[in-house]
Amino acid sequence: MSLPPPPGPRQPEGPVPPPASQPHGPYGPPPYPQPAGYQPWTQGYSPYNHPAPVNGLAIASLVLGLLCFLPGVGLVLGLVALRQIRRRGERGTGLAVGGAVLSGVGLALWALLIATGGAAAMWHGFKEGAREGATISLAEGECFDAPDGALTGDTYDVDTVSCAGAHDGEVFASFRLPGGAYPGDDAVADTAEERCRNLQDGYAMDRWAVPEDVAVSYLSPTEESWSAGDREVTCVFGDTDEGADLTGSLRNDETVLDAHQVAYLKAAHVLDAALDTAPDEEYVEDDLPGHKAWAGRVATALGEQAGMLRAHDRPGGARKPVAARTALGLATTVPPGDDGAGTSVQV
């Protein structure tokens, strides 16, 4: 079975002869002739032109020139960038020229500073500014050497060394001053000296083991370091002779002594503390009330010391000498008061 052709004009059978001329189409002839070999746009083709890249060395040269950092390098990079831009057709000529010019100016300034000594002065000022805001941090039990070997004047840095060998100072305590405005050099010195002297017995509990040429010193904040937040006072032992060194640690506390030694030294400190409160006047007749009060403090300390020594249970070998210490039969008499009555303490 065959289907009839659709209604309409019959199509000629057989091959269609080629047209004699290019058809014009419904809107007339084409506006321009189509070139031979014309291809339409294909997927992936971009009608926009890509700009040439910017030379990286030109950017680096400009950055170094603006910062005035390594001006010699910035000058070289700018010149190399100009050569690459001409050869590769890249962008960045202005950047390279600007970087080279700025780097050249910076290089000239550096040369002028070096020739006139300005660079050394600038570096010295930078170090001084850094030092003024610096603080020295030392821990209890550390030993150190001062830059000039003396524990006097201003110092901005110390070298930590072993306590077994020679050293300028040994740290035995530290504390912080209260905040607020800088109290002044004299106030800081008075506070540091008083508190460090009171703290030395906690580190060197056996006073007899401390050499006579050892004195208490300290590192304290300056007005400049105070503004940077420095509040720390470091208490140190040092030699009284300028330029002399200490050798070995002076530490005698709970970390190196046993419980019996610590108990004995604590009792001894009670009497030592009272003895340290003697009046400034050497002769009694020059300050009778002060000496009477001092005698009372010493008498009280003797009684307290004897009680502490008796209360501690000691090994058998140490009981006899300690008992003899507490039973020496020392009698301390406080000078009589206005009523003529005196006080006698038997230890």
Task: Detail the topology: elements first, then pairings.
Elements (H helix, E strand, L loop, with lengths): L55 H12 L3 H18 L4 H24 L1 H15 L10 E3 L13 E3 L4 E2 L1 E8 L8 H19 L10 E6 L3 H5 L4 E8 L6 E2 L11 H17 L12 H24 L4 H11 L4 E4 L8 E4 L1
Antiparallel strand pairs: 1-2, 1-4, 3-7, 4-6, 5-6, 8-9
Would you give an account of this structure?
- The protein is of the alpha+beta class.
- The chain is 42% helix and 12% strand.
- The longest helix is centred in the first third of the chain and has 24 residues, at 93-116.
Strand runs, count:
9
Mean pLDDT: 76
Cα(first) to Cα(last) distance is 148 Å
The arrangement of helices and strands along the chain is: HHHHEEEEHEHEEHHHEE
SSE-based structural type: alpha+beta
Instruction: Enumerate how many helices there are, as a single number.
Output: 9
What would you report as the Rg, rounded to the nearest angstrom?
47 Å
Domains counted in the coordinates: how many?
3
- In percent, how much strand structure appears in the residues? 5-15%
Strand order of the largest sheet: 2-1-4-6-5
The main β sheet shows up as: 5 strands, antiparallel
Q: Share of helix among residues?
A: 40-55%
Which spans have pLDDT < 50 for at least 5 consecutive residues? Answer: 41-48, 129-134, 329-347
Morphology call: elongated
